[in-house]
Each structure stands twice: as C-alpha cells, then as structure tokens.
Amino acid sequence: MRKVHSRGTIRSATLEDLKDVLDILNITNKAFYRAIVPPETFREPYLAVEELAGEFKRKDFYLYELEGKPIGVAAFEARDRGVAVVDRVYVLPDFQRRGIGAALLTHIERQAVKRGVREIVLWTDSEAAWAICFYKRLGYSEIDQAAVYKDAYIDERAKLHGTQLVVLWKRLASDETPVFS
C-alpha cells in the first residue's frame, strides 16, 4: 500500500488558487500527455487562465497541499439526476504514486455522497493506460457502450468511449440502480 505523506491536506480551492491549479494542470499535462496526444492537437499550455476561471464557476476544485504547497488537484461537477462528473485529476509528476490522487478522489466521493450524488462519471484519453489503471484500481468501471445519461455533456463523451476516450463510472450508493439507461 502506498502511503500519503502525513502532512498532506485537502481543501477547497478558491479563485485565489487559480494560478496554482493552472500550474499543476499545465505541468502535469505536458509531462504525461505530450507523448500520446498527436502533435497537431497537443496544446501548450493545456489550459489558459480564462478557460480555467470559467470552470471555477461551475465546478468545485480541491487542492492537495503538502507543507502548504499545492501539488495535486481534482474537480467535481454535480449534474442532474444524481450524477456528477469528476475531472482535472492531476498530481505533479514528482509527487505521483504516493496516494495523493486516490486521496483526492476519495475526498470528492465523500463530498458527492453528502450532496446526494449516486454515481460519478469520468473520462481520460484512450491512450492514457496509467490513468485507466488508476481509476479501475479505485473501483471505476468502463461504461456500457449503450449507456445513456440523458445529459448532453456526458453523453457526448460517452459516444467517444473506446475510440478517443475511455469513459468510466462508479456507483456511490450500492442500493441504487444505475442512473444511465
């Protein structure tokens, strides 16, 4: 079992943290996705501050800090019908494989349950084998090819499952039936 540094903390990110979040996303994306994203579509920087500021308006961002330094981030967006989308799960390269990403996801799952979320959906690049394995290790499964959430944002990505993206889900409430039909 990997051990998380005992002084690490998770807290809600605010607009004051925008630059730190942006740095984590851009540094980590460059380190891991440059090798798998075709050069003609790879963006550097991955996100601009304006794009991220827009996401802060609709998503809850959480920062993992070690000794006061932000080193990991994850975002959560509650959707309709008890479903949430998790994305932007990034940990700086020098701090990976220490349980920080798992700690962020566990924190988000707890927050989601408190808000009545029954199911989480997330996606990653189909070539990002390390990310797919990470999510599966934490109990996420690939969606059924016929899954329909009746949410345009999610369903648009679900159509890309198996080609450009791998879309995964996790039921948080075991006594509930799946949200997708």
Please supply descriptive tags for the structure shown above.
disordered N terminus; 7-stranded mixed β-sheet; 31% helix; Aminopeptidase; 26% strand; 5 helices; alpha+beta; 181 residues
What is the distance, rounded to the nearest whole angstrom, between the alpha carbons of the first and last residues?
Answer: 36 Å
Give the number of domains: 1
Number of helices, counting only DSSP H or I runs of 4 residues or more:
5
Task: Provide the spatial order of strands within the biggest beta sheet.
Answer: 1-2-3-4-5-7-6
Number of strands: 7
User: Which homologous superfamily in CATH is the superfamily?
Assistant: Gcn5-related N-acetyltransferase (GNAT)
CATH topology tier name:
Aminopeptidase
Low-confidence stretches: 1-5
Fraction of residues in H or I helices: 25-40%
Task: Please identify, by name, the CATH architecture.
Answer: 3-Layer(aba) Sandwich
Q: What structural class is derived from the secondary structure elements? A: alpha+beta
Task: Identify the overall geometry.
Answer: globular
Mean pLDDT, as a whole number?
90
Listing every helix as H and every strand as E from the N terminus to the C terminus, the arrangement reads EHHEEEHEHEHE
Biggest beta sheet summary = 7 strands, mixed
CATH class: Alpha Beta
Taken as a percent bin, the fraction of beta residues is 25-35%
**What is Rg?**
16 Å
Write the layout of secondary structure elements.
Blueprint: E1 8-12, H1 18-33, H2 49-58, E2 60-66, E3 69-78, E4 83-91, H3 100-114, E5 119-125, H4 129-137, E6 141-142, H5 152-158, E7 165-171
Parallel strand pairs: 4-5
Antiparallel strand pairs: 1-2, 2-3, 3-4, 5-7, 6-7
